[in-house]
Amino acid sequence: MGGLCSLRKLNRKSYYIILNLTNTLADVFSAPRRALSLTKILIFFRANLVGYSMYLFANYLSLILAGLTLNEIWTNEGLYPCAHTYNIPWYSMMLFWGSVINWILMIYGSIGVAAKHTICELKKNYFISIDEAHEKVKKNWVPMLFGTISILLILAFYIAMASIFGLISKIPYLGGLFFSFTYLIHVSGAIFAIFTIFVLLVSLVYSPIIVSSLNEDSMGTVFNAYMIAWRFPLQIILYNLIFIPIIFVGMSFFSIVILAGLKTVNILFGHSLLMGQELLEITSMAYSKAIPFDILSKFYSEDISSFINSFLISFDTFTLSTGKALSTIMITVFTLCTVLITLSYSLSILSVGQVLIFNVFQKRVGVDLFYTEDKTLKPNDNVREKNSNGRVDKK
Questions:
Q1: Domain that holds residue 330
Q2: pTM exceeds 0.70 for this model
């Protein structure tokens, strides 16, 4: 009992909250489970729903402006139109790319919000809401974009200076001599430009994480991007090569579970004693429009593709009455929502996993992203930080 009391006393006076993290690559394998959170999925679902709706509207509008009829677009494209595959005028193409960029930016901001929620959750703050996490990120959203833009400006400055040096080198007689004297500068600049391109990729991935975890400004975001790219280049490549299949496996498992659920409903309610062929007609029509079978078939093997295609049932002739049409529309909407939820879950895995990877890097430079004080600690309790063995020693 004495040992138990001592342990409770130690935990009560500790500055650290013990987390279920190893601060190594092994943490990344827990990303699918940590990402399976209703709050995180809703963060991305909200962004995907708005982004997809604007994308759908912009693509239909751009194709209509290009001369296609609404019936032609619906028959050929359904709920997943892509105006880029058509020969359309420039203003229709602007509508298409505007909707794509808008959707990407909404997802990009949601990565920061989900990262903030993940960090608060790992600090044992389980009661932070979506709106609270959104407000915290909204106050500091500029570095998410301008950190990467700043790196692009650095690359642009290098290209401009290289162009000036190239023009000077074209001067007769003196140009060749000038190029010879500045040759090492050109080589060093080229190496720096190659490294900066790598930093740009790092910044695209980690800027939302850096801003959400460290509350950095634009310069701080650029500095952290250069720092982790310089200190951990191989780890960044290796960890993400391992992490990408984890995202794919997690998303695939989630998709198969949802598809299995849909299939089970069809088997149960499609029995001849219940709705029978009527249900199969409704769901087959709804699934053919709401589930992107062609896209899924490109990513999965023939066995899984056959399972996916089994949702589509061919009938020689059948007509939809008004009641069936309304049922088809409702099931199509619900099925489309499950598709967006699946996409949202995969993005949730991406956000959580990158937070855990970034935490490994920060741990190695001596920064604790999940440090939190015990608010029950009294002012006269002198406690030092944990030593290398994980114990807490009194002064």
A1: 244-349
A2: yes
